[in-house]
Amino acid sequence: MFEKLKNMVKNEEKTSNAPKSLNNGKKLKVGYIHLSGCTGDLMSLSENYDDFVDLLHAVDIVYGQTLVDNWQMPKMDIVLIEGSVCLEDEHSIKELKEAREKSKLLVALGSCAATGGFTVYAKGGQQAQPQHSSFLALQHLVNVDMAIPGCPPSPQIIKKVLLAAVNNDMDYLAPFMDFAKNEEACGCDLQKKVINQSICIGCGACAASCPTRAMTMKDGRPSFNCDRCVKCGLCYYQCTRSWWPMDQIKKELGLWEE
Amino acid sequence: MIQDSVLGPYQEIITARASDKKIRSKSQDGGIVSALLIYALEENIIDGTIVAVESNEALKVEPKVATTKKDILKAAGTKYTMCPNLALLKEATRSYGLEKIAAVGTPCQVMGLRKMQAYPMGARNVTDKIALSIGIYCMENFPYESLRTFVCDKARTAPQKVTKMNISKGKLFINHSDSKDAFAIPLKETHGYEQSGCNYCLDYVAELSDISCGSVGAKDGWSTIIKRTDNGASLVDEAINEGVLEVTDTDEGKFGLEMLKKLSTNKKKKNQKRIDKKLDMGLSIPFAHSSKKKDILENR
Predict the structure, then answer these.
(1) For residue A243, which residues of chain B lie inside 8 Å, CB to CB?
(2) What's the pLDDT band for B201 if we cut at 50, 70, 90?
(3) In this structure, are residues B92 and B63 in contact, taking their beta carbons and an 8 Å threshold?
(4) Rounded to two decimals, what is the model's pTM?
(5) Which of A85, A149, A245, B196 is least surrounded, with the fewest CB atoms within 10 Å of its CB?
């Protein structure tokens, strides 16, 4: 996999019917911005530490607190943004808008950025900033190109997304562009969009992907405990019947033939 | 690799059964799944597997992580109601600490497993531990209450008296301890009792598994095995070399592979019509309308 990646980077961009090229054959400039999140997404990203040597052949991390000593936001090919945006925090709003202007691809990384996540429960009145009370998914304020749900997203998916971006594999990234259209998520999405549509098959993928055990299985159907839900959307996105990436699966299994 | 929209991509189809009589006596047909899992476990190819076992309540099933031969044998035999095997995937890596998991499942469960591997947003450090996927042929699945209807209202017996259920030759057979003969219900009468989600399924033979198997296309007591990935094919080949499985000639004819293809084609055609109807009504479904497909038999 990494051999292929390196070759792709070395060669000038050749083929690809991708809608746009992110890197023009050069190293991909990646930025990381931390808004209102718990740093779990950054931890998940850095869990790829072993693979960073390979990954860093293909990407340059050019901006990010704790990652790079750079206070001026540069132009970026991709910016990963963790956390939701707090409406009472003008710095967050300014940074988000600046990131939108300076990046080709703005990625909401993790459920707080993608759907608001558990920060949608916030009501303010807490130290150290009692006035901070309203938190929203990034789509409410700027145009988001891709959303990667997860609380946090697994290290594996972050790596796969970065590799796909390096390789201009827009087919792989397409679902994340669709996810960016959703401004919110909840465990009841499964009831509304899957069970009520009569397409649930009781496989249990939702229960396996729930990070808080809000979703369990009962009588062959998901059983949802709203009190435990952190609004991450994983149960729906990981559901067998919510969307179906047949071609990507066949490619990965080696069952694909052009 | 043979690309086939009816049976999915595969390398070879063979007919086999478990050599061990003890395994066969506990199994549904050829005992392939049990024999392969036990072999893989003993050879350290896997360190555990997710299987469906009967729960405390008769005929009700639940998923279980099996890490011994005994556990695997306990799960032998087809279950005719839904069992959310995928729900245990994370549990198997965390609570059980498994690093090489096998997952046995229906075609839809294999689809869910593969989707999770391709897009593992919520499967932190899980998908790299999936070593094997065994798929079983499946036409449809029943909610537990539907099974109760068959057993209590039609066969006029009780769930705890049922010794075996089996679908073959267009009938659902229920063996129970009150009678020597199995009670037969024509499948025409079971239609309408299946879970609704099955009506929109375009996969009969678990097209994305490493290995698929089932009784269709083989004579009684044997199973057909579809070798798909290299991983799956080498496991089957090794099991044959080691004498775990015994192979017989594959019947290409009307009651052999033709039957398998016919049933798969029928399921796909029937359900594609239902998908089209649903899409025409403006409802949400992740599969494509037949007018937008090059080959309507494809699972997409």
Answers:
(1) 286
(2) very high
(3) no
(4) 0.94
(5) B196
